[in-house]
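User: Let's play a game. I give you a shape written as tokens, and you guess the letters that built it. Ready? Here's round one.
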């Protein structure tokens, strides 16, 4: 439907927050992002927009209208043909920037081959937009 402006956020259809304290990265489930959609980023999130594997932008707290075409003049015509939707696929990834508490426990062998039981608690914190990009990027071996 042309002219409809979608809101992209971490809220579910019933208004509950999806990106809780135990989730590091959440992938927005709809790949058909409509041009002009309003991207909402909460204060404890970063948002990364990708297209065809390339990171287009990193967003911090705020609301942003998305321009989803990579060819503005031709893209407008193609979008009109597709009823306002972009035929290009985009990924919206939300990264939790709150400190996440992680726990690990198990049994390990010492150098002398003695069994040692361990329990460890540690925090994971994505502090900057650059750190969010490093988390999402992957390098081929």
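Assistant: Ready! My guess for every position:
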């Amino acid at each position: 439907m042309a002219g409809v402006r979608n809101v992209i956020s971490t809220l579910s259809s019933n208004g509950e927050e999806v990106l809780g304290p135990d989730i590091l990265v959440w992938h927005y489930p709809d790949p058909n992002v409509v041009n002009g959609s309003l991207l909402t980023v909460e204060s404890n999130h970063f948002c990364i927009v990708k297209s065809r594997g390339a990171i287009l932008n990193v967003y911090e707290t705020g609301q942003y209208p998305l321009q989803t075409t990579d060819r503005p003049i031709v893209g407008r015509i193609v979008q009109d043909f597709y009823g306002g939707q972009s035929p290009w696929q985009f990924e919206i990834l939300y990264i939790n920037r709150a400190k996440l508490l992680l726990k690990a426990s198990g049994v390990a062998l010492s150098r002398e081959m003695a069994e040692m039981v361990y329990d460890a608690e540690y925090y994971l914190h994505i502090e900057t937009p650059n750190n969010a990009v490093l988390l999402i990027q992957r390098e081929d071996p």
